[in-house]
Amino acid sequence: MEKRVVFGHKTLPYLLLLPQLIITVVFFFLPAGQAMWQSMRLEDPFGLSSQFVGLDNFMDLFSQQAYLDSFRVTAVFSILVAGIGLGVSLVLAVMADRVIRGSGLYKTLLIWPYAVAPAVVGVLWLFLFSPSVGILAVALRKSGVDWNPRLDGNQAMVLVIVAAVWKQVSYNFLFFLAGLQSIPRSLIEAAAIDGASPARRFWTIVFPLLSPTTFFLLVVNIIYAFFDTFAVIDTTTQGGPGTATSILVYKVYSDGFRGLDLGSSAAQSVVLMFIVVALTVVQFRYVDRKVQY
User: Fold this and answer.
1) Given a cut of 90, is residue 81 above it in pLDDT?
2) 3-state SS class at 54
């Protein structure tokens, strides 16, 4: 017999959901509505007057080459951060899942970076790659690489990608390790008895069983690359040199708080919101079909 919990009070479920609903409305729906309303207005920098302009802010955005370039920068940045982050984390999780001496210390050291604030991560890697005193920059210069992310846009992109990946590796590692430890050892042992090589066992048994975890982390990492890397970019390159590392979320801040173009900044935030929603829908509709639950 299946046992089900029945609420005798009709309003009790709604009362239990009320705190979460209030948080969702206050911190998501209201700011989103305010951004959409502000995106259709032209405001002076001091907020003393505003004028309704409809979709003019959006039309002006897509006529700017700098804004269109930020799409390319964001696409490259998000794909590399998500791809490299997931790949490195999976390799580390597979290594940690093996029975080796000192595995507890190894796992603890890999988890630590997640506790570091994004701004601190940016400062840390900026110091390591500083052209004048950075340890890694000096090593690169000795090996023949003319390293200077302040002048080279590609090197600046490498810097922010390395910092962003390092920050997210611990989060991905935890989920991959938990997924690996939940796979029945009997399946892997049976494949080994049948003569399957370690690589074949991984790609035919382990990785397919990790597909739910991988799909979840793919969605999380895309959102992380779009939003949570703002502090990393702000403390390392500030979107430069030029606009080489100015992703969409940083351009929203740059135009709104530095350029004081509040209408354009709000329009950019609305566009960014729809892009992330669209990417999430596509991932759940198409990528999710290949996930084996």
Assistant:
1) yes
2) coil
